Each structure stands twice: as structure tokens, then as C-alpha cells.
Amino acid sequence: MGKYDIKILRITHLRGPNIWTYRPVLEAWVDIGTLEDHPSNTIPGFYERLSSWLPTLIEHRCGIGERGGFLQRLRDGTWAGHILEHVTIELQNLAGMQSGFGKARETSTRGVYKVAVRSRHEQVSRTAFLAARELILAAMEDRPYDVAATVEKLKDMVDSLCLGPSTACIVDAATGRRIPSIRLTDGNLVQLGYGIRSRRIWTAETDLTSAIGETISRDKDLTKSLLQSCGVPVPEGRIVESPEDAWEAAEDIGLPAVVKPVDGNHGRGVSTDLKTRAEVEAAYRLAIEEGSEVIVERFIPGNEHRLLVVGQRVVAAARGETATVVGDGQSTVAELIDRQINSDPRRGSTEEYPLNVVLLENDAAVRLELERQGYAADSVPEANVEVLIQRNGNVAFDVTDLIHPDVAEAAVLAARIVGLDIAGVDLVAEDISRPLEAQGGAIVEVNAGPGLLMHLKPANGGPRPVGRAIVEHLFPDDEAGRIPVVGITGTSGTTTVAKLVANCLHLSGLRTGLACSDGVFFDQRQVERGDRSNWASAHKLLLNRAAEAAVCENGARTLLAEGLAYDRCQVGVVTDIRHAEGLEEFYIHDTEQVYNVLRTQVDVVLPDGVAVLNADDPLVTRMAELCDGEVIFFGRDDAPAIAAHLAAGGRAVFVRNKNVVMAHGTEEIGQIDLASPMSSTQVRAEDIAAAVGAAWALKIPFDVIRAGVETLTLVL
User: Fold this and answer.
1) How far is residue 384's CA from residue 146's CA, in Å, rounded to a whole number?
2) Percent of residues in the chain assigned helix, strand, coil, to nearest 5
3) Angle between the N-to-C axes of helices 702-710 and 494-507, in degrees from 0 to 180, rounded to the nearest 10
4) DSSP assignment of 445-486, as one string?
5) Which of 164, 204, 519, 665 is the one with CA 20 to 30 A from 229?
6) Residue-level pLDDT at 510
7) Which one has a higher pLDDT value, 324 or 636?
8) Residue 645: half-sphere exposure toward Cβ, Cα within 13 Å
9) ∠ CA 244-245-248 to the nearest 5 degrees?
10) pLDDT of residue 294
11) DSSP 8-state symbol, 382
12) Would you state the pLDDT for residue 659?
């Protein structure tokens, strides 16, 4: 044990909106012990070591609001909890998982802090947090720490655990449209939107992608036959069964030829511009290793191009280029490749690089290309002799603005013929700005689930908004993929309000999911029993693609321990705020702190949504100023907040005698007699008023709301 210590008391992953922010965070409770008496400026050499190990901390503005703000705080003196926040953020950033948000707050116990940082993946964030603790202690105690190894470990985790770049760009585009997203697996299967309004993607495949179309695209011979029958230019060719048959087909079609697997992908096993029997037969053996059958086609001169078709338009195009080296009379081919090709900073072995490194030992196609020219890896080409390494190497040079309209039309037609809503159409042409027929160009493949990286990080040219194009394809006309979501919180009456709102939604004709303390219900059928006012149960409602509306009860404990299951809601209801027993373990001791917890429900109301607030509770009334949307107050008819709200032209629901009255400004819209339901239940009139306000906010007709109240005993 060193001189200093930071004890971790608890780590919680808040998976949705919470007291800190709208987004998931990792929240850690730490006890900094004696460091409470030793701010950063009192520890010799600490500032110098930490700032040299993590020089990028200079980008953290902190509370000062300018570049270098955090380092200034560090130099002037700040505490370990605050430092832990910033180091965790920076380790995540260096690993490629951007995280700009963080907070550190003291609790009522001296030396104990709550530290929260934005978390895009729980496991990565936990590892970064634990590493940040060790790094800080090492810097304080002047011990060595391998920052590079830690960052490399985190990078590996990001690569293996987080969404791939193609899926991530679609999710980011959806987020930009305020469309929520839910990751369904550890892979790249993601749901965009909630309930019946949702769509699903798997990289660049969608739930609109035809399974038959995908199957056709994998069969290159069938694809070519269908395209040819519809007048799309394709290279002549046929399936072959042996090296000898491949040579016979090449002679029949005419040399030079192309040999490739029928069901291969990503260009594996493809050999082009073959001119001799030895080349064709060697190419057959390479192709059969990558697929179940092999096809021989006429060679089309020109460069390979990949056109991305989304819906009925081409949204991006990239061109491939050859990779060559020039001999110096001294270096081997392998050495020339490393020096002249792999040294290009655009090349790398991970997805963040637009071009791949050339690895002779792993690429049979490159070795075959060298053999055709009489070279091997250890050959030494003469000075100034050019050696071809890859034909059309990586297709990563943006040419979107050069596409001829006829070429784009042919690509869209090819995708439609195969039956794909999103397709990567491969064509060969010398000049993509001219029609294919005029230059003997042809479409050679149509691929389902095309990679998007070449369009996001081209080797030359700017990125294309392909993620946005896919989101617009799935959600046209500014649809947001949302169903009505009602969130209800407070310290009493929330279950009654939730069940009554769900009843009104059901009577209005919507298939409604309800998660509350009495269980999970769908379409008024109980599917789970017990207390289900939690994240997991609400999450199930949002995943249900039959759900047309969702009602979720959320207590203070759920908000503190899990966060909300939804990012935003159409209606947020707060019944009241009182000190709740059992929250002391979260360092919540008074009603003002409960207010800060429950306000989350109002914070997430959509701009076109409504907060339904208790006008009889001053703390709840205060939440009106937090709402991005409209406010409907409920309560007693003599509540001052209701009178002021109506005078300002607002809406309110109030209890007068034994009636619930709906009013808008000076006009009373309608009233509901509570005598019948109130005589047979112990339901508070204020709870009924809250539910009526929520139903009104959802634009449910008055007659349906009244029927919902009158049948209240059937749902309690």
C-alpha cells in the first residue's frame, strides 16, 4: 500500500437518462481518504508527471471554459475525485471511444465522491476507470506507469466490443435526427426507434433488405444472368469445375480473363487480366479456396469502382487504384512493399485506416501477381523497374461527384433487379464520368450488406454522409421512430396513474405496454408479475415491435441505480416529492435531493411533449421551468399555480367537489364525475387528475378519457 489510496466503494452503469445527463454514464463512488487533505498542488511532481503522461489533457476545458482549463485547475489545486473524472475521460478518448462528459461531486460523507463519466460501453468504461485510478496513484507516488500499453489494451477492447464504423455511422446519423437506438446484441444488430415505429439494421443491411435478394447477390452467376436479361451490361462468363475447365472457358470467352469465386466477398480470391493457361489454372486454385464454385469471365479493362445504392439513388462512389513499387537494384520486393506502400500513413491493419497494409504472407493474390511477373518476395527488381503488387488494391478513392447519370441509373437498376434496398454495386470502367456502353464497361457484382468505411474514410476526398442516407431511407419525412411513451415518477400514486393512463390508451385503440409495480402488461394482458417498475421491464416494452404506446413507472431508486429505459418521452408525470425511505444508501437525505433525482423525468420530455405536474406540491411546480415542451398542471381547484397557469392560457386538470375538470385558459373543456369510481376504490382524486392530464396530453378524446376513469376499478 502506497502513501495515498483511492478506495472504490461502488461502480454502477446507468444505462439511460439519469441525474447526471441524458446519456448512459458510469458512476463510481470513491473514498479518497487522506487525499481529501492533499489537493493536487500539494503533491510534489504530480502535475508534471500527469501532464507529461497525458499531454492531451490540455484539451479539457473544465469549469474554466477554455483550452487548458483542467490543467490550470490541476496546477492550482484540485481533488482526486475530479482528477479521476478527467483521466477516465481522456483514456476513453485515446482509445477511440469519445467521451466529453464528466462530473465529480462530494457527498455528505467527507472524502467520499460520486464520479460520473459518459459511457458508450460499460466494460470499456469500467476498465478505463480502474486504469485511471492506478495511473493517478502512480503519478502521485512517482512510480512508473505504462500509459501506451493501457491505451492499446483499451483500443483493442473498443475494436472488439463497440459498434463497427459502418453501424456506428448509421446510429450517429439517427441520433442526429433524434431517433433513439438500442443495441440488440454484442455485435452490430441495432434497433432504431421504439415499438411498432422501429426499424432494425445489421451493419448496412436493414429489416427492409430482402432475404431472397441477399441470397441472389451471393450467387454471382445468377446475379449476372438476371442483370443481363434486363439489359444491364455485364461481362460474359460461366461457372467452371476444374483448372482445365477454367482454361477452356477462358479460351472460349477470349483472353484476358478474370477468375473469381461465385460466392466470395471483399475481393478475396479474385484474379484479373489473366493471359496464360498457367495463370488461369493457378487463379482457379486460389478462387476455389474462397468459395464453393468458381466463375471465369471476360476481363474488362479499367478500374474497379464501388457504388453505394440506398433506396433509389447512388449516394457514394469509390474507385480502386493499382499498387506498385519501383526497384532500386538493391532491395527485395518485400522490402520495397514495406518502404513504398506500407509506409503510407493511410494504410493500417484496423478499420480506422482507409487502405490496408500489404502482407505477402497472408495474401495469395499478391503472391500470384508477383509470380506472373517472375518475382517472389525475396526477388530484387532492377533499378527503375516498376512491379505491380495489387490490381485496383483498395477501393477507397472518392469519385462520387464524377458519376455519369447513366452509370448511376444502371447501378440503381442492378440493385432493384437483385432485390436489395441497400447494395454495393461493383463495376469496372476506365472513366466513370462516361456511360458504360460507350467504353465497354460492365457491372461485375451486386453485394448485400456493403461496407461503408471506404465512403466514411476515403484515401482521397472527403467523407460522404452515407449513414444519413440510410437513416433517411428508413425514416422518411422526418419520422423519428417514436411511439407515445409516458414516464411517471413521484413518491406516491404512481402505479394508479400508470394503470389509468394505460387503460385510456388501450380504449383509444392503441396496443399498449405497461411496466409498473404490479407487473408488466401488454394489451391489458399481464405477462410478468411482481414489481416491474425498473429499467429492464420498460426496455422490453420499447423492444416490442407490436407496441403502439408504452407507459413506464419509474421510482427514485430506478433513476438512481439504473437510469431511464427511454431517451425521451412524449409525456412525463410527476405526482409529488417527499423524502423516501431507503434512499440514504445513495446519499440522498432530503426532499431537495429527491427533487434533483425526479427532475430527470421532466428533463427528458420532448420539445413537442408535455410535463404533467402536481400544482399542490411547490417542488413539483418548480419543475415547470425545466420542461422543453408544454406543461399541464393538476391538483386542487384552489391551487395558486393552476390559477396563474390558466390565466396565462395554459392547460390544467383540477378537482372540484367530486369532479375532475379539464380547463384550457378560461374555458372548461369537460368534467368527469368521480362519484362512481371513487365510491368503490380508495383512489385519490389527485391521482385521477394526473392520469386525466396525461391522457389529455396524448390527445385522447374526452369521451375515451371519461370511459377510462369510469372503468378504473377494472384495472386496479
Assistant:
1) 44
2) 40, 25, 35
3) 130
4) EEEES---HHHHS-SBS----HHHHHHHHHS-TT------EE
5) 204
6) 98
7) 636
8) 29
9) 90
10) 92
11) P
12) 93
> Whole-prediction pTM value?
0.88
How many Å apart are CA 598 and CA 586, to the nearest integer? 14
Question: By the 8 A CB rule, do 99 and 118 touch?
Answer: yes
C-alpha cell at 312: 433509389
The closest of 259, 384, 286, 253 to 328, measured between CA atoms, is: 384
Residue pLDDT, tens place only, 545-581? 999 999 999 999 999 999 999 999 999 999 999 987 7
Q: With b meaning 16 or more CB within 10 Å and e meaning fewer, what string describes 127-136?
A: bbbbbbbebb
Q: What is the DSSP letter of 604?
A: T
DSSP string computed for 145-205: --HHHHHHHHHHHHHHHSPPHHHHHHHHHHHHTT--EEE-SSSSEEEESSGGG-EEEETTE
C-alpha span between 505 and 143 (Å, rounded): 62
DSSP code of 66? S
Tens of pLDDT along 680-707? Answer: 467 899 999 999 999 999 999 999 999 9
Instruction: Round to whole Å and give the CA distance between 455 and 463.
Output: 6
- Look at residues 322, 283, 326 and name the one whose alpha carbon lies nearest to residue 303: 322
Evaluate whether 700 touches 508 at the Cβ level (below 8 Å): yes
> Given this model, what pLDDT does residue 393 score?
62
d(CA 651, CA 612): 10
DSSP state of 341: I
Amino acid, single-letter form, for residue 659: N
Q: Across all residues in the chain, what is the average pLDDT?
A: 92
pLDDT digits (tens, 9 = 90+) for 194-219: 999 999 999 999 999 999 999 999 98
- Strand pairing class (189-192; 181-183): antiparallel
CB 163 within 8 A of CB 188: yes
Of 237, 208, 171, 242, the closest CA to residue 312 belongs to 208
Q: What is the b/e burial string over 212-221, where b = at least 16 CB atoms within 10 angstroms of the residue's CB? A: ebbebbbbbe
If we measure between CA atoms, which residue out of 462, 466, 532 comes closest to residue 494?
532
Distance CA 182, CA 191 (A): 5
Grid look-up 411513451 returns 485
CA separation for the pair 233, 218 (Å, rounded): 19
**What is the rounded distance in angstroms from the CA atom of residue 235 to the CA atom of residue 308?**
20
Q: What are phi and psi of 324, to 5 degrees?
A: -135, 160
Residues in the chain: 716
Which pLDDT tens digit goes with each residue over 215-241? Answer: 999 988 899 999 999 999 999 989 999
Please tell me the distance from the alpha carbon of residue 687 to that of residue 371, in angstroms, as a whole number: 82
For residue 618, give Cα distances in angstroms to 626, 633, 694, 704: 14, 12, 20, 31
